[in-house]
Structures
1.
Amino acid sequence: MLRRLVPADAVWLAHFMAMEDPFLHSLELDAQALYPSPMYEALDWPVLVTHAYRAWERVFRALPGPLRELALRVGRGEVFFPDAAAGGYTLNSPRGDRHVQLYVLHVDPEDLSALAGLLHRLQTAVERDTDPELVDSLRRIAEDLTPSSPGGMSSPTKCVDGFERALNVLQIKPDDLLLSCIPDELTGQVVALDSAQDAAYDAFSQRISSAVTAHDSPWAFLMHRMFNA
């Protein structure tokens, strides 16, 4: 198993939850409607969707309890305060400032590979306009998302982009120094970083901001850093 660090960050959690609903859920339903078994099992992209969906479910179940609760709140569109999560903890800088909490996630590399494999297929389908049934499914998902999409309109490209942003964070390999100071089990304690650990935290959180604001303006990156330091 791989050890990853994932943040109590509403932006990343929103992308992560959207990987399942409406994205993987809708893709699997569309594929099952188009290709009944045993044809379903013989085709490439429907099987990729199913493998990715089961992988996402395992990753979600592996989230530490406090972060899983925050993810569910974000999925319901609720405002959350990370410190209020039952069983959460406080992460402090050497100056006593509060950081956005990081949680240890144990994830199977095969599950990351399943998600990355589907992402590659989706990107190829959108960029080259291949897999017409898959692209049509993405268009339907985008239409359903349009009323709530920033700017008023979604698209297959935006849907795939959100999936990529969520996966980008899961793929970041954390610094060993930072990993060593974030306990696997966190039950309300205060974790105070020293100066070296704090520098590692800052570098890691910048990578998270880059991942979740990929393809956006520099202003989006700066705003994310401001609220997720």
2.
Amino acid sequence: MTDIWEIYKNGSWEIPFLTFSIYAFVCVSFILYLLIVASRNKKIKRERLRNEYSAEIDQLMTSVIFNDVSFSSIKENKNFLVLFDTSFFKEVLTESIINLHKNYEGIYAQKLEQFYKDSNLIKGSFRKLKSLKWEVKCKGITELAEFNITEAFDEIISYSKARNKTLKITAINACIRLAGTKSVVYLVEHSDPIDDWTQLNIIAAFKKHDIGDTKGIELLLESQNTTVITLGLKLIKELKLTQKIPFVAQLAAKAPNTVIKYEAQSILQTLTV
């Protein structure tokens, strides 16, 4: 310790230390510069490939939608098979099909759904559900819901209790799309509090998917979770479900707390008027 203290007092350590610090700073800066350049080049390359792939995919999907070309016929094209083996091409292809599916209905939408299954893009979506990254899980859930893959419902509903709020909302919205009011049964048993933001997203999902059959929404009013009861009341109010007035009246008569009682009475007045 005495020797170290003497070296420190003499100041003989200052020049080596400063020299080392400068070299270290230069090396770290150079490495960061290389990483930034590499990342930028990768993004440029991906964008160039995306544009090239998009042109190929547009032609491909036009033949699928309007010319009834099946995936088995497309597989005979060796150039397509080479592209289809790359993960980035599959990613761009899936995004393109989703965008098309959102804009088409009826037989055209069914053709896109069939292509999604025949091309095994569906397997990629299921694999995303197993990812450790929540954003990848959300992507897989969104893809499966968009193409109405009802067999994914049980797996997707398990994420409705996820800690990540975005993943939770994505899963609940997907289940509403896939099962409509049948998904309400799972909300009734939801033990975690459903915050206002999540409730707004659930209500928006019901409105967006224009679910005609509202049978079962009244079950939310029987939940042991007060936030689920509140959600049920908001759904009845926003969707103007006047046929649910008897259930709201019953809740107002024996509400678990005064807040819910006042909410139920307020909604009764709104729906009655």
3.
Amino acid sequence: MNNFPENPADTKPNDSAEEKAYHEHYDRQIQALESAKAPAHSTRFIMKVVNNTEHDLDANKNTLGLSADNLATLQLPSGGISVYGQDFRYVRNPGSRSKDIYHHCIQFGGMTVGAFVEFGLRVDTSFGLFAPTVTPVRICKIMSIGTTPINCTARITRALSTDPYSFTMEVTLG
């Protein structure tokens, strides 16, 4: 499951009312993805990226194996928003102490201005007297890269507390 805007460059807001409607449009898209049933044995990851910089920041490197067409849809014009969603296979062996479910990164921008976003899910298991305790560990990190630093934040906005521990994160650049 991948969800990309049809043409992000055409949806850039012009004033505060348009900007609010713009965010609401993407938030509704995220809510639809969060409420849609995930395939069996899958954990859903959703990421909203907001570019508040004065620079166009395209996704140019990733560990997801995205095609050139998918990367092209992750263009982030100045003031733009993008939503990315993917279902990852969720398999956990009951006897294992720790299991990486997925761990990936996407780079927006480049050597002058850019950000490196890292996300993932690991499930830690500790064995108690009667039953094991399963603890999800979500990775939600961002780092400014390039010669001109930009302010970056990443936060988890929704996290399921039960298997398969799906979560949504929001990344703000600038």
